[in-house]
Amino acid sequence: MKKVVITGSTGFIGSWLAQEMMEQNIEVILLIRDKEKCPFTESEKVTLIEYESPAYHDLTKNQVEIDAFYHLAWGGVAPELKNDCDLQLNNIKLALDMVDYAVKIGAKRFIATGTVAEYAFCENIMDLNAKQTPNDMYGAAKTATHYLLETRARILKIPFIWTVVPSTFGEGRRDNNIITYTIKTLLQGEKPRYGYLQQMWDFLYVKEVARALVLIGEKGVEGTSYGIGSGVFKPLRDYIVAIRDIINPSLELGIGEIPALSDKAFSSCVSIYDLTKDTGFVPQIGFEEGIKRTIEYYRNKQ
Fold this sequence. Notes:
Elements: E1 3-7, H1 12-23, E2 27-32, E3 46-50, H2 54-61, E4 68-71, H3 85-104, E5 110-115, H4 137-156, E6 160-165, E7 167-169, H5 178-187, E8 200-201, E9 203-205, H6 206-219, E10 225-227, E11 234-235, H7 236-247, H8 273-279, H9 287-301
Parallel strand pairs: 1-2, 1-4, 2-3, 4-5, 5-6, 6-10, 7-9
Antiparallel strand pairs: 8-11
C-alpha cells in the first residue's frame, strides 16, 4: 500500500495503526474532529483533515489513489458509556457516512473494526460466522454496524472487510479495562479485586493489532471477517498473575472477592487461522514482552 485514510487516529488502536503505517512508509490521511487534539503533526507522509472542512470536501473532488480506508472511529468504548444508546446510534450513522465517503474519494477497499463484545456469551473459540450474542449496546451497535456496512458496501460496490479485534493492551490505553486496572492498582501497592477469572482469554499487544490491520489492508480477501488475536488462549487468571509477578510477586490479588455475574465462564478467544492463511500474520511480540513495555509506560506515568 502507498496511501490510506484512517478515522479514529486519536484513539488507542487508531493512533498505533497510524504510527505503524508511517513506520512502513505508507502515506496516511487522518480524518479527525480537532487538529489540536491530534497526536500527529502534518508532514510529507501525514495529512490531517477535519470532518466537514473545505479539505474534507475537496478530497471528493480531487480523487487520489487511496489503497484502503480504515474506519476505527468509535465513541463510547469506556465501560460507563457502553449502554449510552444515543452515542452508540451515532457511531452507526458515522460508519455508514464513512463508507459513502470512501466511495466518493475513490478508496479501493473499506476496512472496519468490530469487537469480541459482539460474541459476549461465547464459551469457546468464537465462530465469526455464528450468530452474535452481544450483552450491551456497544456490542449490539458493532453487530448492527457490521451488517449495515456489509450491505451498504455491496450496494456501492466497494470491497469490504470486517475485523474482530481482541482484548488489546499497550501503552496509551486510557480506559479502566482489566489490564490497566490491574497494573495501576499494583503499582500503587494496593490489592486489585476480581471475580474468579476462570474464563479463557486472548490478549494481543496493540502494536501487533496495528500490524495485522496493515496486512489485512494489503492482502485481506474481500468479504472476509478476520479475527485478530495472538492464537494463545489462557485462563484470565493466568494473565493477571503474570502481571503481578512482573511488578512484585509479594503483592496480593483479590481473585474471587467479587461475586460472579454468571454461572458460566464466557471466553474471549478468536481463531486467527484465516488471518494467517490470507496475510501471513503471526504475532511477533508475545504477552510477556508486551506487558513489560506496558507496565514500564504506566510506571513512568506515576
